[in-house]
Amino acid sequence: MNTSIVWLRDDLRVSDNPALLAGAETSDNLVVVYVLDQESPGIRPLGGATKWWLHHSLEALADKLQRLGGRLILRHGPAHDVLRELIAETSAHAIFWNRRYGGAERELDATIKSFARASGLKAQSFQASVLFEPWTVRTGGGTPYTVFTPFWKSCINNHDIPRMPLDAPPVLPHSPLITRAHGGQEAEPLASDDLASWHLLPTAPDWSAGLAHRWTIGENAAHERLEDFIDTRLPQYADGRDAPARLVTSELSPHLRFGEISPFQVWHRVEAAKAHGDAVVLKNAIKFMAEVGWREFSYHLLYHWPDLATVNFDSRFDAFPWGEANPEALAAWQQGRTGIPLVDAGMRELWQSGTMHNRVRMVAASFLIKNLLIDWRVGEQWFWDTLVDADPASNAASWQWVAGSGADAAPYFRVFNPVLQADKFDPQHEYLHRYLGEYEHPLVSDYPLPIIDLVESRNRALAAFAQLQGIPRAIRPPSP
Questions:
Q1: What is the pLDDT of residues 139-162, one digit of tens each?
Q2: Using an 8 Å Cβ cutoff, are 302 and 478 in contact?
Q3: What is d(CA 209, CA 271) in angstroms, rounded to the nearest whole number?
Q4: φ, ψ for residue 442 (rounded to 5)?
Q5: What stretch(es) of the chain map to CATH 1.25.40.80?
Q6: 252 annotated ligand binder
Q7: Which of 3, 160, 187, 280 has the most crowded CB, counting CB atoms within 10 A?
Q8: Contact between residue 16 and residue 40 where contact means Cβ atoms under 8 Å apart
Q9: 238, 31 in Cβ contact below 8 A?
């Protein structure tokens, strides 16, 4: 039997999935596998919120595959070992996957590709998760971009239009039984883990009720959300995206993070809206696609600087005088009990729903880094654990942007004032009231007093930054 393996990772969909399509077109028997790999060197374990999303996304994917005649195989362990065993079990002739861009992931993929080809298998990877491969976008001097605007202009002006999305395979060739390569055993079903045995869902306590209320997960839900955005939210996007109380953002980020929808599908759906829309739609579509461009830029950075989540992009910040560890202040920030309403509302939105409005993310991050003088990596790790869209590229790049240590970063002396931000973007305090019940009734409120003075802490942050002034900005060289 001509058997191919399709190894899925952050591409949990059946449409516009080039690896899945290649496997379906070149085999009599297709083995689709997801490997829970939290043991390979350098692979970052998922956070609690993304584990919750992954569980439900795999359930949705298994149903989609079954409807096409296939089956999702679940295995856990170091991916290299798991795949070698699976190749031996199935006598596979080929293995396909869609590319990832982190350093450890690329090393793992290269190792598996080398093993497969040395064993006589066809091994092929595909572009499926970014519109522009990171190594193809270069400055005139041949170096990676470190500023967003020229990067995005280069993408849209100097590169081919992103390819059209691919259809899902009409059917998945699948044999319910396999014959072991050795031992003369009779044909038997291919073993698969029970998803529940992975313990991805929280139990003690189960904090996921708010997430379940907030999100519908899976490929179908991702496309429904995209259509809702195009039909009802896109015309308001440019003017309303910074107002946290308004529902005008796309809310596609967790679906993109797990690959339930591809950036190619988003690009071409927005292009279709532009073609049939007016000047208002055009303006808003350009603004929205620039946000998709920030995701592309983040992966560009991650590819060239794989330690983006742990090392200052600007090495001057290696000498930054972070304040002494303050567990009480950190806990207040994490729990939304700082006494600073916009920060607290955002942190409570995060805890309740697994997401936070982007404007408020910047304010909450700035407060942690600059008012509390807590290292940006502490905040990045907290978001990694609590966001359903915790993305290995965007999360790290955005935290470094706010910190001032990153590519195209906000200057460190830009300290978001949470009070002014709330007055400007939530003037009726709708967002504050939505998440701060006690704030809504101040006469009977137990809302905490501010844990820090905003003016004094801003001055302290600027004084700390002054210690770095005079040192030339030093961008770390990209990985070879």
A1: 999 999 999 999 999 999 999 999
A2: no
A3: 36
A4: -65, -25
A5: 130-162+219-304
A6: yes
A7: 3
A8: no
A9: no
Is 26 annotated as contributing to ligand binding?
no
pTM: 0.96
Does 383 show up as a binding residue in the annotation? Answer: no
Phi, then psi, of 163 in degrees rounded to 5: -60, 160
pLDDT tens, residue by residue, 250-293:
999 999 999 999 999 999 999 999 999 899 999 999 999 999 99
pLDDT digits (tens, 9 = 90+) for 166-188: 999 999 998 766 655 445 556 77
One-letter amino acid for residue 242 of the chain: D
Q: Classify 130-162+219-304 by CATH class.
A: mainly alpha
Nearest residue to 396 via CA among 473, 263, 307, 474: 307
The annotation status of 390 as a binding-site residue, yes or no, is: yes
What stretch(es) of the chain map to CATH 1.10.579.10?
A: 315-466
Residue 479 annotated as lining a ligand binding site: no
Q: Is 425 annotated as a binding residue?
A: no
Four-way CATH pick for 315-466: 3.30.70.330, 1.10.579.10, 1.10.101.10, 3.40.190.10: 1.10.579.10
Which CATH fold would you assign to the domain 1-129? Rossmann fold (3.40.50)
- The secondary element (H helix, E strand) that includes residue 125 is strand 122-126
Instruction: Return the bridge partners of 34, or none.
Output: 8, 74
User: Phi, psi at residue 89, to the nearest 5°?
Assistant: -65, -40
